[in-house]
Amino acid sequence: MTSLATINRVTADPIEAAYIQVYLWAEAVKKAGTTDVDKVREAAKGLEYRAPEGLVKIEAENQHLWKPVRIGEVQEDGLIKEIWSTKEAVKPDPYLKSYAWAKDLSN
């Protein structure tokens, strides 16, 4: 029998995102002690999880995820070769608040 840890498999960001969501939701439910949406949402603030990609965290301010950033290059075989990445998770900026060029986008 072959160990799953020794099998070289390809995955995609949406698959990993779904995987992370299930674990973070389960942790928030445990912390809240209920599946009540408002209580779970509150319990999720600041939750951290060691995901396959590294440590991720739910930003309390906007419920988006701190994640490592990776830049890749598509190869001839369709696979993506990582050419750059951050060493740590990056704070989410879903509303482009930290970019001067984006200040007028929401008006």
From TrEMBL:
Gene3D superfamilies: 3.40.50.2300. SUPFAM superfamilies: Periplasmic binding protein-like I. InterPro entries: Peripla_BP_I (IPR028082). It comes from the Bacteria. This is Leucine-binding protein domain-containing protein. It comes from Desulforamulus profundi.
